[in-house]
Structure to design on (216 residues):
């Protein structure tokens, strides 16, 4: 029984390819959502969500926090990973072990074994919040994939090409979806359209996205 379950995956979980190195796992997190949100809640008690400033001086509409050995930050000096939270001057909260294991499972299911994330960036989208088209390229290790988890309100994820001006595809990421991109898709441009208001039983008027990164 257990074997059958492993082969077929849990009910309602299915994969869709977004490229030779990119996989959209619909429903991956649904069964784990309450636990993941509880983990996120504990992290943001210690490292509260905040609106970072871009190097150009603009306030980001997405509020962010991190857990893990380092965290992604942005300010007038640029984008970078750093071991301490600039707001508290303390180390970022540790990455909850179950959260890390789920990210590794998603990577593994997508053909990336040995994924060893050291950073989890937590993005909080209130209605209207968006993320412009960008590449994830601040990591020293570009051979490891990015694993993204979506919770709460649905959002339009913009999945582009290798150049900013490349053709884009718009896909609706829903509560519980995971996206994994690595290999030749690792440097694809991507972004999120302005969040449409709504109400989700677990997150209220918000979407929460986690991205797991292996920076070294
Ligand atoms: C990101 O690119 O860091 C976030 C993607 C998302 O919110 O889906
Ligand atoms: Fe990104």
């Amino acid at each position: 029984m257990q074997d059958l379950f492993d082969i077929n995956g849990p009910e309602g979980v299915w994969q869709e390819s977004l490229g030779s190195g990119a996989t959209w796992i619909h429903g991956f997190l649904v069964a784990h959502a309450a636990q993941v949100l509880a983990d996120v809640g504990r992290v943001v008690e210690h490292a509260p969500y905040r609106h970072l400033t871009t190097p150009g001086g603009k306030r980001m509409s997405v509020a962010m926090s991190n857990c893990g050995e380092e965290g992604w930050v942005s300010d007038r000096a640029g984008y970078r990973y750093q071991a301490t939270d600039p707001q508290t001057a303390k180390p970022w909260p540790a990455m909850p072990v179950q959260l890390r294991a789920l990210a590794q499972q998603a990577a593994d299911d997508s053909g990336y074994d040995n994924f060893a994330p050291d950073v989890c960036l937590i993005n909080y989208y209130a209605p209207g919040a968006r993320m412009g088209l960008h590449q994830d390229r601040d990591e020293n290790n570009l051979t490891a994939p990015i694993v993204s988890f979506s919770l709460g309100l649905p959002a339009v994820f913009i999945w582009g090409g290798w150049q900013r001006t490349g053709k884009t595809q718009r896909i609706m990421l829903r509560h519980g979806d995971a996206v994994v991109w690595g290999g030749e898709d690792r440097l694809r441009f991507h972004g999120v359209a302005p969040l449409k208001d709504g109400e989700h039983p677990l997150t209220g008027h918000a979407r929460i996205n986690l991205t797991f990164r292996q920076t070294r």
Helices lie at 2-8, 33-46, 97-109. DSSP finds three helices and 13 strands in the chain. The pocket of fe (ii) ion (ligand 2) is lined by residues 134, 136, 190 (CB under 6 Å). Residues 33-46 form the longest helix (14 residues).
